[in-house]
UniProtKB/TrEMBL annotation:
Protein name, as recorded: Parallel beta helix pectate lyase-like protein
UniProt-recorded Gene Ontology molecular function terms: lyase activity
Gene3D superfamilies per record: Single-stranded right-handed beta-helix, Pectin lyase-like (2.160.20.10)
Organism: Plasticicumulans lactativorans
Lineage of the organism: Bacteria, Pseudomonadati, Pseudomonadota, Gammaproteobacteria, Candidatus Competibacteraceae
InterPro entries assigned to the protein according to its UniProt record, in alphabetical order: Pectin_lyas_fold, Pectin_lyase_fold/virulence
Span list, region Disordered: 464-490
Keyword list, A-Z: Lyase, Membrane, Transmembrane, Transmembrane helix
C-alpha cells in the first residue's frame, strides 16, 4: 500500500510537470505563431497563468527559471551612442539661424546671468548661451514673462552641444507664460536620486505656444511634462506647443516609482510632437510600466508624426513594460482634466508616419478612451502591435506595417483597412536591417503602391511627398527621395 501511494505521488508530480511543460510549449508556440519576440511571448504567458490559472503560476515560474526563459533580453541591434547618432532627432547641423537682428540680444555665460535674463525677458528677446557648462541647482527656473506671436522670447545656443545645462533639480524650466522658444540646448539631469530629477521642462497654465526644438534632453523621468490647472476660476492649459527635432532618452534605467514618460501631456490641446528620437525610457520600480509619449486628460487635436521611438535602444534585457506612443494612457485625476471630465482621455488625434521599435512586452501604439483617433502609415517592428481600448475609443487604423496584431479591447470600435502584418522574418526580407532602424527597401512587392490616399497624410517619415494616388504602406514612401531614419534626413 505504501509503495502504491509513493507511485501515485510520483505519477501526480510527473503529470503536473508534463502539464506545466505542455503549457509552456503550447503557450510559446501560440505567441510565436503570432510572431511575437520570445521575451514578449514568455511575459504574456506568465501574465495569462497568473490571471487565469493561479495554481499553475508558481510551478510555471520555476520552470521558466530552470529553462532560462524568464526576463530574456530583447536582443535588439547595436546602435551608436546618441551623441554620435545621425538619424532622426537633434543634430548640430540643424541648429538653424538666430532670429532677426532687430530682436534684442542678451548674451549669458553662467547660471546667474541665464536666470536673470529669463526673469527680465521682454517680447522679442533672444537669450543666447555662450559655450560652456551651466550647473543648475535651483528647484526650478520660473518662466513667467510672456512673448507674443510676432515677438516670441527665444532661449538658444548657437549650435547644439555648445551650451551644456546640468540640472540637479526637480524641475528645470517651468514655463507658465506664452510664446517661448528653446532650441539647441543640451540638458542633462544629474541628480544622484532619480526621484529628484523629474522634468527638463514643465509647461503649465498660460504657457501656450511653447516650442522646444533641436535639443538633447536626457536622464529625467519625464523630460517634457505639461498640464493645466485652474487660474482665476478657469481651467487654463498650455495649448498649441511644438516639440520638434529633439532627442529624448536616458543613459540608465530610471530607479524611480514615478512616471517615466519622456513626453507627458495632460489636458492640453493642439500639441504637435514631430521628428523626435524617443528612446530608452525604462522604469525600474513600482509597476515598471513606461511610455515614450502620451497625451491624455481630455486633450484634443494632438498630432504625433515622423518620430522614431526605440523603446530599447541601448538599454535592454530589463523587466517591465514599454509602450511606444499613446493617445490616452494611464488614469488622470479629474482636477487635471479639461472641464474636470476624464471620461474621454483624448479626442480627434492623429498618429501618422512614425517608426516604433523594440517595445518589450507591449504595444507600439495604444489608444485608451481615445475618441476620433486616426492611426495612419506607421511602421511598428518588434512590438505587440496596436491596441484600442474601452468603449469611448473609436479608431481608424489604416496603411500601417507592423509585427504583432491590431486589437480592439473592452468595447473599443476599430475600423482597420490596408494594413500589412508581417513576421520578423518577413521584415528582414522586406527591409535592409530593421534591427538598427535601417528600413531601406529590399523587396517592396507587398508595400510599394499598396496604400490608399488618406486625409492629412501628404508626406512620410522624412517629410518626403507621398504618391497622391497610390502611396506606399508604412512610415516611408519609397519614391525618388531617400529616407533613412538612422541617418541624417536633412
Amino acid at each position: 500500500m505504501k509503495r502504491l501511494a509513493q507511485w501515485l505521488l510520483r505519477a501526480v508530480i510527473a503529470l503536473l510537470a508534463l502539464v506545466v511543460l505542455s503549457v509552456v510549449a503550447v503557450g510559446i508556440w501560440g505567441y510565436q505563431r503570432n510572431e511575437l519576440p520570445l521575451p514578449v511571448a514568455v511575459g504574456k504567458l506568465e501574465a495569462l497563468a497568473t490571471g487565469r490559472f493561479p495554481a499553475l503560476a508558481e510551478p510555471l515560474g520555476r520552470t521558466l527559471d530552470v529553462l532560462g526563459l524568464r526576463d530574456l533580453p530583447l536582443a535588439a541591434g547595436t546602435f551608436p551612442p546618441v551623441a554620435q547618432w545621425q538619424g532622426i532627432g537633434a543634430q548640430p547641423e540643424a541648429s538653424g539661424v538666430p532670429p532677426p537682428l532687430e530682436f534684442r540680444r542678451v548674451e549669458v555665460h553662467d547660471p546667474a546671468t541665464l536666470i536673470a535674463a529669463i526673469r527680465a525677458a521682454q517680447p522679442g528677446d533672444v537669450i543666447e548661451l555662450a559655450a560652456g557648462v551651466y550647473p543648475l541647482n535651483v528647484r526650478g527656473i520660473d518662466v513667467s514673462r510672456g512673448g507674443t506671436a510676432e515677438r516670441p522670447i527665444v532661449v538658444r545656443a548657437a549650435r547644439l552641444g555648445d551650451a551644456q545645462l546640468r540640472m540637479n533639480t526637480l524641475e528645470g524650466f517651468v514655463v507658465g507664460a506664452p510664446y517661448w522658444r528653446f532650441e539647441n540646448l543640451d540638458i542633462r539631469g544629474v541628480c544622484p536620486d532619480h526621484d529628484d530629477c523629474e522634468h527638463a521642462f514643465h509647461i503649465v497654465g498660460r504657457g501656450h505656444h511653447t516650442v522646444v526644438r533641436n535639443s538633447r534632453l536626457y536622464d529625467f523621468n519625464a523630460m517634457i511634462k505639461a498640464n493645466g490647472f485652474e487660474i482665476e476660476g478657469r481651467f487654463t492649459a498650455p495649448d498649441a506647443a511644438l516639440i520638434e527635432g529633439n532627442s529624448l532618452y536616458n543613459t540608465a534605467v530610471r530607479n524611480t516609482g514615478n512616471s517615466v514618460t519622456p513626453i507627458d501631456v495632460v489636458g492640453a490641446d493642439g500639441w504637435v510632437i514631430r521628428g523626435n528620437l524617443i528612446a530608452d525610457f525604462i522604469k525600474g520600480r513600482s509597476d515598471r510600466t513606461s511610455y515614450g509619449a502620451f497625451v491624455k486628460g481630455n486633450a484634443q487635436g494632438t498630432v504625433i508624426e515622423r518620430n522614431l521611438v526605440i523603446c530599447e535602444m541601448h538599454l535592454s534585457g530589463q523587466a517591465g513594460v514599454r509602450i511606444g506612443l499613446s493617445l490616452g494612457g494611464g488614469g488622470t485625476d479629474a482636477s487635471y482634466c479639461r472641464a474636470n471630465d476624464c471620461s474621454t482621455e483624448h479626442r480627434d488625434g492623429i498618429i501618422r508616419n512614425n517608426l516604433v521599435l523594440n517595445c518589450a512586452n507591449d504595444v507600439g501604439i495604444y489608444l485608451n478612451r481615445a475618441a476620433g483617433s486616426r492611426v495612419y502609415n506607421n511602421t511598428l517592428y518588434r512590438t505587440v502591435g496596436i491596441d484600442a481600448r474601452f468603449g469611448e475609443t473609436d479608431a481608424d487604423i489604416r496603411n500601417n506595417v507592423l509585427t504583432g496584431r491590431i486589437k480592439g479591447r473592452d468595447g473599443a470600435s476599430v475600423n482597420e483597412a490596408d494594413n500589412l502584418i508581417g513576421s520578423r522574418r518577413e521584415f528582414e526580407r522586406w527591409f535592409m536591417e530593421p534591427d538598427v532602424a535601417d528600413f531601406g527597401l529590399r523587396d517592396g512587392d507587398a508595400i510599394v503602391s499598396h496604400g490608399k490616399p488618406l486625409p492629412g497624410v501628404t508626406d512620410d517619415l522624412c517629410g518626403n511627398p507621398r504618391n497622391p494616388s497610390q502611396p506606399d504602406l508604412g512610415a516611408i514612401e519609397f519614391g525618388k527621395l531617400p529616407c533613412h531614419p538612422n541617418q541624417a534626413p536633412r
